[in-house]
Amino acid sequence: MSGTGEAVATLGQDALAVYADDPQVSAELETYAVRLREPLRVALAGMVKAGKSTLLNAIIGEEIAPTDTGECTRIVTWYRWAATPRITLHPLEGEPVLLPVRRVDGRLQFELGSVRAEEVRRLVVDWPAERLRHLTLIDTPGIASLSSDVSERSLAFLTPEDAPSEADAVVYLMRHLHASDLDFLEAFRDTSAGTSGTVNALAVLSRADEVGAGRIDSLISAGSIADRYRADPSLRALALEVVPIAGLLAQTARTLRQEEYHALALLAAVDRTAREGLLLSADRFVRIEFSPDVGQEARAALLERFGLFGIRLACALLQGSVHTASDLARELARRSGLDQLLLLMGQQFQERAAQLRARTALTGVEALVRSHPRDGSTGLLTSVEKIHTGAHEIRELRLLSALRSRTVPLAPAQAAEVERLIGGSGVAQGVRLGLDDGASPDDVRAAALAHLYRWRGITENPLTPRTAAEACAVVVRTCEELVQEAQVRAHA
Q1: How many domains does the chain have?
Q2: In the chain, which end has fewer C-beta atoms inside a 10 angstrom radius, N or C?
Q3: Other residues' Cβ atoms within 10 Å of the Cβ of residue 153
């Protein structure tokens, strides 16, 4: 546990002592103590049919989440690591119920019996997937659904009015940027971050292969749109990054089967002009007979798994330097945008997991104390304020949010450097300092010292505006820690 996490854990114990005679508040305080020890919770959110379940399957690396429009897609569903598969239904009233673990075509089938979706608080899927060891993924119902109760279920989970979000961070999927997307991200930031005002969301331009009507250059077009969204000040203040993702292709790449590779290799061997004619539409591809080796049923299965874009891309790769199923899977995953998303989730969420969990717990304890004042509350709130002002990791997160909201009066180049130094691109030493992976401890120390002297000078310059100087002081503290870490490693 980080130093901030230990301080928040101590605060929680002090709060439990103050509220020892209040079972309800004590139970809520215990949940925050548990959250400090749990894996980071990352929710996938977005409008209906944005591709949340498909992307979740791609991240996990297995097709387990249902992707149809059935009853279970209207329920908040948790996916967490366990050695043995298990599905637990948590109703709004009554005790949890174990459901049978049943898969059809690889995907789980949630058999609710007579229980209706609106009577379920959550489904919890325990699953032995390596990706879930350090990350709990939460699939949420679509926001802005035609069914208002479905939307309300997601919003109540992600943006409750009087407590921090159940999720520590969110991957938000959108097909286009609408005012409703910004409204949700703003509500999530304000709810999850509380008074710390930090940003903990990644935006995904989903179903990116559909941007160019399935053309082989669709992801290039989607990348241009993502660049434009990334530069939008309103979105930049709410999301750490914008990534275009072809979710179906990503899911298929992670679960590619040998028979699919074989069928694609046969298609790639067909005359290019003839193949492109077949790929003009889904109907033509399935209906027209052109090869006895790849029948209608096989083509229909490929279309469902890859889409026209994925088939075009796979055939192009197989005509080039890709000659094995594993190589094809890796290249499809890279081109789908999944690799970039996983890298960002690692840099922005998992490397900061301890800080994000601590911030969530701190926000929750503060909200409880403020809503239930009594003798001892003032002392607890004083401790909260001390953690807010003294926890450097939280100050970095707060400054990152301020930089993205453009409320810090720094030149663009300076702001970009500050963002990198405080961990906006990742918290590893080399990433913060802009160094290559192979940089020596002496190189790291020299770079850290150079940044320290530079930003200390800017901080102490009487011409630096007060708001900028306060931001620079955070950078100086970061640089001091980087120097100390470099010295320790140099003498190790």
Answers
A1: 2
A2: C
A3: 24
Token pair in block for residue 435: 């160094």
| Inside any domain, residue 372 | no
DSSP assignment letter at 463 = T
> In this structure, is residue 436 part of a structural domain?
yes
**Domain final residue pick, 336, 361, 382:** 336
SS3 (DSSP) at 88: strand
State pLDDT tens for residues 26-44.
999 999 999 999 999 999 9
Write out the H or E segment, with its range, that includes residue 473: helix 466-490
In 3D, which of 350, 315, 358, 312 has the Cα closest to residue 426? Answer: 350
The values of phi and psi at residue 333, to 5°, are -65, -40
Residue 90 contacts residue 122 (beta carbons within 8 Å):
yes
Last residue of a domain, one of 290, 308, 336: 336
The closest alpha carbon to 351, from 36, 135, 106, 33, belongs to: 135
DSSP label at residue 345: I
pLDDT tens for 288-309 read 877 767 888 888 999 999 999 9
Domain containing 312 equals: 250-336
Alpha helices in 194-280 (DSSP H): 218-230, 233-236, 247-254, 258-268, 272-278
CB atoms within 10 A of CB 48: 16
Edge-first strand order for the sheet with 201-205 is 97-99, 86-91, 120-127, 77-81, 135-139, 40-46, 169-174, 201-205, 242-244
Tokens (6 digits) for 189: 């930031």
In a domain, 255, yes or no: yes
d(CA 245, CA 208): 5
456 belongs to a structural domain: yes
pTM: 0.89
Integer Cα distance of 366 and 386 in angstroms = 12
